[in-house]
Write a structure and sequence with these properties.
Layout (H helix, E strand, L loop, with lengths): L3 H21 L3 H12 L5 H6 L10 H27 L24 H15 L3 E2 L5 E3 H4 L19 E3 L2 E3 L5 H9 L4 E10 L11 E11 L4 H16 L4 E9 L2 E10 L1 E3 L5 E3 L3 E9 L1 H6 L8 E7 L1 H9 L12 H4 L2 E2 L2 E2 L1
Parallel strand pairs: 1-5
Antiparallel strand pairs: 2-4, 3-4, 5-6, 6-12, 7-8, 8-11, 9-10, 11-12, 13-14
Helix pairs in contact: 1-2, 1-4, 2-4, 5-10
Length: about 350
Amino acid sequence: MTDVPSLVKQLDALLAEALGEVSAASDGDALEGVRIRYLGRKDGRISGVLRQLGALDPADRPAVGAAANRVKARLEEALDEAAAALAAPEDAGRALDLTLPGREPWSGGRHPVTRVMDEIYEVFRDMGFSRARGPEAETEWYNFEALNTPLDHPAADEQDTLYLRDSVLLRSHTSPVQIRTLESHEPPIRILAPGWVYRRDTYDATHTPAFLQVEGLVVDEGISFVDFKATLAEFARRMWGPGTRIRLRPSFFPFTEPSAEVDVKRVVTAPDGTTSETDWLEIMGAGMVDPAVLDAAGVDSERYTGFAFGMGPARIAMLKYGVDDLRTFFENDVRFLEQFVPGGLR
């Protein structure tokens, strides 16, 4: 006879039988066999009982369904508990050994190039400079032509510059920020322009196709070469110590005239207290702003003069921390980066 009490009784009997098999299971395969045998949708024994629901009055079916759900939930709980017990390590019941040494947390720190960027900001902020930014996708006008660089110049060739479409390109230096600032602000101007720049350079010990650059621009009435040299000399002393000297070597840049490469000679103190000077090392390119650049930005070159400079913070960091391969800064090797923690080197 098929009625509600008999079906519920069958379900309870199956539960008791299944729980006995769960207790006797010695491994995961045995537990999985119990699960399939009783809870399988097609051939499971509980599903077989539920197939008899069709013989019941529709009003009686919910009671049997509720009993079946209760039995399934209890059996699934027992299976999960048994599986967890089998998976537990053998020493799970042992007391915690408090004599084991603890693990120190990782010490977070600023990246060495970021540290150098912050130092550069601080030095020039004290000299009255403010920061300015511009887009990384630039036009040929701002990246070349406004900076007194014709489009037939080798720097504008596709072999050196990364073009996006038409006359839009990834800026090859942060100098376009100088033009945008001159167009939107009246002198006096004293800015520092940091940002990423992109060039078709080979990735090696001294070059990367994408790198940070910091450029400075000063424009005002009466700015002279003396102001230019004094500013960079003060920067070098603040970065590497009061005994640091700078040297200006004649060079050429389309947007400055005269132009110079800036070298530094540092004073190094040995562990025994003796001091010595390093060789001359190049740190930046610089020069007096070419009048053609001021005219292109709408600034009266008869009234105003200025100077500009540009440097790579990663190269400064190489010099400052004694790193001989630029790629070290980009490889994210924790063994290298963990040396740099708040307050200085560990």
